[in-house]
Write a structure and sequence with these properties.
With about 190 residues, the chain is mainly alpha-helical. The chain folds into two domains: about 45 residues, Orthogonal Bundle (Arc Repressor Mutant, subunit A); about 120 residues, Tetracycline Repressor, domain 2. Helices cover about 70% and strands about 0% of the residues. The chain is built from nine helices and no strands.
């Protein structure tokens, strides 16, 4: 059972969510030690509102992190599947491996690792990959399965981001894409 009740889109619920999310972002920027009462006071709501909606501070931070991980735009079109995947993977890796990106990913997973926030993070990446593959299909290119890209490009990058902190560069992302093309994509 989900600890959070279903939320109606729009109206007061949307205003509360936006004000609480904004309060968290502001307090994080100020490097404040976050507490539910501090967030609630900044947002202009009662702590019980935060607890009722998010359950606890970690779930709230997870919700904010997921929202921050949402892509702002579709992947750029660079003219070919390989170029599109290389550019997208490099940008994705740069964002996820940045200190802020690592923090957002950890917060998103810490709220409820098996819950909807972890799934939403995966869905964002999947939607971006599907957009790249659909565009290549429209151009008449042979494309791999979405799961092939998720398993052999996205998954290794996320493993490195989460479990092997250290410098990661665009070359690593391009090498993963090259693997998909050289060994995993069936011939047309």
């Amino acid at each position: 059972m989900n600890p959070r009740p279903a939320v109606r889109p729009g109206g007061r619920s949307a205003r509360v969510q936006e004000s609480v999310h904004r309060a968290v972002r502001e307090l994080q920027a100020e490097q404040a030690a976050l507490t539910v009462p501090l967030v609630a006071a900044r947002a202009g709501v009662t702590p019980s509102t935060v607890y009722r909606r998010w359950g606890d501070l970690q779930e709230l931070l997870s919700d904010v992190a997921v929202e921050r991980l949402r892509p702002d735009s579709p992947p750029a079109d660079h003219g070919s599947l390989r170029a599109d995947l290389e550019h997208w993977a490099a940008a994705f890796l740069e964002e996820m491996s940045s200190p802020a990106g690592r923090s957002y990913v950890r917060d998103a997973l810490a709220g409820d690792p098996d819950g909807p926030n972890a799934g939403q993070c995966s869905a964002y990446a999947r939607e971006q990959v599907e957009a790249v593959l659909a565009r290549a299909t429209d151009r008449g290119e042979h494309v791999p399965e979405t799961e092939t890209v998720m398993d052999h490009v996205v998954a290794p990058m996320m493993y490195r981001v989460l479990f092997r902190p250290g410098p990661l560069d665009a070359g690593y992302a391009r090498d993963l894409v090259a693997t998909v093309f050289s060994r995993l994509m069936p011939l047309p």
